[in-house]
Amino acid sequence: MNTSVTNTARLLGAGLRALLVLTVVTGIVYPLVITGIAQGLFPGKANGSEIEADGKVVGSSLIGQSYNLPLEKGQETPEPDLKWFQGRPANGLGTNTVNTQYDLILSGATNRSADNPELVQWVKDAKAAVIKDNSVPGHTVHPSDVPADAVTSSGSGLDPHISPKYAALQIHRVAERNALPVPQVRALVTAHTTPRTLGFIGEPRVNVLELNIALRELTSKN
After folding, report:
1. Taking phi first (over 0 means left), then psi (-120 to 50 degrees means alpha), and beta for anything else, what does residue 181 get?
2. Which of 84, 104, 136, 200 is the most exposed place for a label (fewest CB within 10 A)?
C-alpha cells in the first residue's frame, strides 16, 4: 500500500515538473525567442505590415479598407467617396455579433455558388454602380471594361489589392473629382503597380491604401 502511494506521488511529481518545464519553455521562452527574432529581422512584418502617413499608422498593407462618405441621417449603407480609388467589394463579411468593436474579427467569402440568385444580383448591382460611378464627361465605361475584381469579393473579403485594370478604370473619375490631369493620375497608378513576384508568381496588383496615400500627397501639392 505504501509502495503504491509512493509511486503515485512520484509519478504525479514528475508529471507536474514536466508540466512546469514545458509551460515555461513553450509558453514563455519559445514565444519570446521567436518574437525577438521576428522583431530583429522582420520588424515591419512582425508588427502587422503597418502603413504610416503624416507620422501616424493609417492601416496595414495586408488588409483592405473602405473609402466611404459619412452616413447621412436615416442612411444604412454608406456611399463610396468617389475622389478615392475604391477596393474590391466585401460581400463575404457578415455582421459581427461576437465583438462589434473590432471589425477584423470577421473574414470570409460569400460561400455562394456561381448561380446563386443573391450573388448574381450582387454582381449585377456592383457592375451597374462601377459603370455609373466611373463614367465621366468625355469618358464612358462599358460593361466589357469592368474586370471581375471590381464586382466580386476576395476569398477573405479583406483583399487590399485590386488589378491594374480596375485601377485604370477609375483613373478618369479620380482625376475629375480631384481636378488633376488624367496622365498624372495614370502615372500614379503605374508607379504603384506591383508586378508578378519573381516575374511569374501571382498577378500584377495595386495596393489601394498605398495608392490613395500617394493620391492625397499629390492633391496636397496642387
Report:
1. beta
2. 200
Question: Is residue 114 very low, low, confident or very high in pLDDT (cuts 50, 70, 90)?
Answer: confident
**Distance between CA 132 and CA 148 in Å, rounded?**
16
Residue 1 has a pLDDT of 52
Alpha helix stretches (DSSP H) within 42-193: 43-46, 117-134, 164-169, 171-177, 182-191
Q: What is the mean pLDDT of the chain?
A: 88
Identify whether the C-beta of residue 158 lies closer than 8 Å to the C-beta of residue 137. no
Provide the residue type at 38 as one letter: A
The three grid cell numbers given for residue 15, joined into one nine-digit string = 508529471
Q: Would you state the pLDDT for residue 42?
A: 87
What are the distances in angstroms from CA 150 to CA 28, 60, 176, 221? 45, 21, 20, 29
Distance CA 61, CA 82 (A): 21
- Please choose, from the candidates 135, 162, 133, 168, the residue with its C-alpha nearest in 3D space to the C-alpha of residue 148: 162
Q: Are the beta carbons of 215 and 188 closer than 8 angstroms?
A: yes
50 and 63 in contact (C-beta within 8 Å)?
no
The 161-162 sheet, strands edge to edge: 161-162, 205-207, 193-194
* pLDDT reported for residue 125: 93
Least confident range from 74-88, 96-110, 171-185: namely 96-110
CB 51 within 8 A of CB 213: yes
